[in-house]
Amino acid sequence: MKIILDKEKLNSSYVQAIKEMSMQKVMSCYQCGKCTAGCPIADFMDVVPNEMMRLVMLGEIEKLISSKAIWLCTSCFQCGTRCPKGIEVHRVFEALRSIALREGKNYTNIEKLSEEQLEAIPQQGIIAGFRKFESLE
Amino acid sequence: MISYPYFPGCALSTKAKALDICARESIKALGYELKEIDDWTCCGAVFPLAEDEHIRLVSPARAFFKASTVSDKLVTLCSACFNVLRRSQKVLKENIQRRERVLNYMEEEVPEKYPENLKVIHLIELLSNEIGFENLSQKIKRSLGGLKIAPFYDCLTFRPPKEMEFDDPENPKIFGNYITALGGDPIDFPYRSECCGAHISVSNPEVSLECSMRIINSARQNGAEALLTSCPLCHYNLDARQKEMLDKRIDFKPMPVFYLTQLLGITLELPEAVLGFEKNYVSPLPLLKEKGLL
């Protein structure tokens, strides 16, 4: 992946929004990779959690918003629990999802849920699935 | 009889009824009462992680106001409700600015003083701290007879640790101690606190299936005969979806998954109708009959 360091990108409104929404000191990440080591979904992600942190630091937010990884995160909080720098990595994921959703980039579509799924999945799962991945606004 | 205000939540009122009914009946058999608070609304299922989302804390605040009129504790059992309610109370108690924003949405329901002392507790905390596991082992009518049960420590009950303040997130013991108190043999296994795939079973069912299958296989490899969970969504992923695991892997062996409260119900000899095993995809009945527990 080719990355060009760009002052504007580094201080873009996207980066500011992520810092404000997540309330995390993203710049203190030193890339130890413990978040990725603990992530149960990392095998399936196109951008793993520590790479995501690095891309946030470099201001490459658009790359992240269009990644599959932000929609695969289950918010299990393992990354944040194990971070030696105390960064709640899951909140950074959530901020990225929130930006995408607020721009109308929904990941799921409630109409596509099958009768079978609706019948079987507990409400908790359905509500969480749609609140995390779809904006109805 | 000591009565505790109780927040059952949406899943326990519909698809996870066994978790709910066994809880109410078991607590009653132990001489206490879970009293459902009036007119509760869905907790929201996920705690809002973005700092600028205030309205999502309104439903928890309503529940706290109702509970605080009768007690300083609010009992819940569903992992999602517990996670959302416990974290919401921490925010509303400690962050005065956010509290004010939230209360502005709900002027007519706001009591004069915010119930800062109200503590959201999980049913397992009621059993371990209020009743006590030692006392519990005296009160049960029948032991689990060394049944090998792998306690599954779901994400939402234990993490994030700074907000949940519940057991040790890396080395949890509470469900294992509970199984011991009921006469079972808790089986430790490497995947005990890995995510089951949670709500991504809605949008990416294949990925969450892999996560759940890893957990069951790990429990089996370590000698478990059954799993224990307190989360309705983990139960769906770990139990109901074993149908797909059987289709996918020819060598997959099904394993019964008990709700936390079903085990208590067995030891208190509650009737089978209360235990609600007909809702389990993998029926625990053959295992229980083999062990002489039914």
What does this structure look like?
The complex is a heterodimer of chains A (137) and B (294). In chain A, 46% of the residues are buried. The mean pLDDT of chain A is 91. Chain A has ten helices and no strands. Chain A folds into two domains: 28-105, no CATH class; 108-137, no CATH class. The longest helix of chain A has 14 residues, at 89-102. Chain A has 137 residues and is mostly helical. In chain A, 53% of the residues lie in helices and 0% in strands. Chain B folds into two domains: 2-122, Glutathione S-transferase Yfyf (Class Pi), Chain A, domain 2; 141-290, 3-Layer(aba) Sandwich (Rossmann fold), CATH 3.40.50. In chain B, 48% of the residues lie in helices and 11% in strands. Chain B has 16 helices and eight strands. The mean pLDDT of chain B is 95. The chains are: A mainly alpha (137), B alpha/beta (294).
Helices and strands in order, then pairings?
The complex is a heterodimer of chains A (137) and B (294).
Chain A: H1 7-10, H2 13-22, H3 34-38, H4 49-57, H5 61-65, H6 69-72, H7 78-82, H8 89-102, H9 115-120, H10 123-133
Helix pairs in contact in A: 2-8
Chain B: E1 2-7, H1 10-13, H2 17-29, E2 32-36, H3 58-68, E3 73-76, H4 79-94, H5 96-104, E4 119-122, H6 123-139, E5 148-151, H7 155-158, H8 161-164, H9 174-181, E6 185-186, H10 200-203, H11 205-221, E7 226-229, H12 232-240, H13 242-248, E8 257-259, H14 260-267, H15 272-275, H16 285-290
Parallel strand pairs in B: 1-2, 1-3, 3-4, 5-6, 5-7, 7-8
